[in-house]
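Journal club side-thread
Mid-discussion, someone asked how the predicted structure for our own chain would compare to the paper's figures. Pasting it here so we can look after the session.
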Amino acid sequence: MKKTVLVLFVMLLGSMATLQAQSVVGKWKTIDDATGKEKSIIEITEKDGEYFGKIIKLINPTVENPKCDKCPSPDKGKPILGLTIIKGLVKKGQEYTNGKILDPQSGKEYKCTIKLNGSNKLDVRGYVGISLMGRTQTWVRA
């Protein structure tokens, strides 16, 4: 009986790890397009069926405690560290869509779609108008 319970417990832990690996929820490293170096860590969370991404770490920032000076209200002037840059994504099939993503460097906000690319990569697409008019970054699981 003890062996059966132990086996079931191990199987449950294994399936929970697999489910976590197949979710966008978690911490992701962003890569700078120009340098190819890691730029920040974004934590994606889920609340009431919507997904949000917040900057939880800046890797080698050029300015200490940078602010989002170019951002639209209500984010204008807020510290970039702790800023929620992905808002309102909803899961539809294998994609997360209908959200917005903020570029704190330019202050521009784009429509956003994200999709897992394997278990440790995340394709993040920001666009204006239609999805064809945008670009995709690949983030890696932290």
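Post-session note: The two ends are 39 Å apart (CA to CA).
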